[in-house]
Amino acid sequence: MSAHAVADYATKLARNRLGLWLFVISDSFVFIGLFVTRIVLLGPNRPDLNQILGVSVTALLLLSSFFMNRAEVEMAHGNRPAFVRNTFITMTLGVLFLLGVVGVEWQLAPFGPADGAQGAVFYSMTGFHAFHVLTGVILLFIVWNNGRRSVYTADKHWGVEAAAVYWHFVDVVWMFFYVGLYLMGSPV
Amino acid sequence: MAETTDQVASSRRTELGAGVWVMLMLGVLTFGEFLVGVIAPPWGSALLLVAAFKAIFVITYYMHVGRLFKAENGGH
What we know:
- The complex is a heterodimer.
- Helix content of chain A is 82%, strand content 2%.
- By secondary structure, chain A is mainly alpha-helical.
- Chain A has a two-stranded parallel ribbon.
- By secondary structure, chain B is mainly alpha-helical.
- The radius of gyration of chain B is 17 Å and the shape is elongated.
């Protein structure tokens, strides 16, 4: 790339990053709203949920962040096969998380979405978060497919960075939701 | 100045290593949260501080928030 092209790319990259972080901050306000709703409506109580399942799905999401970070590092160093492999593992862990929460936890929960504040809080928090995980998995699939087709290079891989930041954001949100839904207060 | 192959390999190892340490720390803290939450639920709100601590690590080392304030490509 010429010096001008490099400078142009750096400017675009800086703007893209700012835009992405502004989106992350604005999206986090919705999650903060949901968390405050949990505090107000449930107070010192918490839904009686399966603790082993809760910590298991949390571990899956943390692990997925680890592999996403590896994928980004590998791409930044031009190791495309490792990027593709790690992104695939991240996607798989994301799908397993979704299956754990929506496919298992929602079925095991001893209450439904219409069963008072507890149901409303639990299903809206996990549902909204699961929707973000689903969109994250779709984003990762696009990035993974692009990676397989050699769209990214060590010098130019904004798509990978954006997908990684979004994925880690979803992980950060769950760190708080896990505490709010599974650990804070006494089970009722 | 272009990096040598050794420098590139070394920086890759360093970045991957940092990722492993962050993951280990997140794992230990999450297991601690789980134990406290199950054994002593009234301490639950203190666990929010632990969650915030974990979030700061992810935002710093995995999301690379510092790149926002760098003029150069930073990572690309």
